[in-house]
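Please check our next protein.
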Amino acid sequence: MGKEYYVASCVFTSRFPQLSDKIQRYLRERYDMPIVRCCIPKYKLKEYEEKMPEQYRSGWRSLPDCATFGAGDVVYSVCHNCSNIIEETRSGVKTVSLWELILLDDSFVYPDFSNMKVTVQDCWRSKERHSEQLAVRSLLKKMGIDFVELNENMNRTEFCGNSLYKPQPARNPKLAPLHYEVNAQGKFLPHTIEEQEKIMKEYCKQFSTDDVICYCHYCLEGLLMGGVNGKHIAELLFDEK
């Protein structure tokens, strides 16, 4: 019988320290689940510690930087980068999104967002993860949210915010070449900030709703750069006003 872990994600936690703390607390209390920071050992530990607000640094520092994931283990995450890297570097380890886990939790209390209408923005980094895509939509329904689909949704999406318009970290194609080299032709090419903003604003012209919901921190960065009211689904599930 394998172990279960949650990868809290350096990038997600540095952007949403309070929200990440809520998620970690939920997983400890509900599942007594071990929590680690990242998908690989000792990745930019000091850099990400310094990005945390002071009141969250000690808690973040107390987490193991990683774990030795082995065959039969299940790793939950909010980070598609972590999922992809684990999938390609750890044979026999199953990666599952946090959204799928929440959907299975009969005791989870959903906030009520009745009468809210949003557009769902899928992510290129997880375009083949159909069960995650379906889980996101089921969670929106459970919160009473009506949603609109884009023409290029699910496995047709090529969107991951402005992250696809600048060089990616060198570790990504090295550790996950299928995702970040073979399947990334024409992506991660250098663009100026001005060019990135122009591309994002042009992309965001297609939205017909005031709110756009995504489930990727890189997608969120691009949506906000494009001038729309983007929200991460975790902000709604854990009712971050």
Remarks:
- The chain has twelve helices and eight strands.
- Residues 1-106 form one domain.
- The chain has a mean pLDDT of 95.
- Residues 17-31 form the longest helix (15 residues).
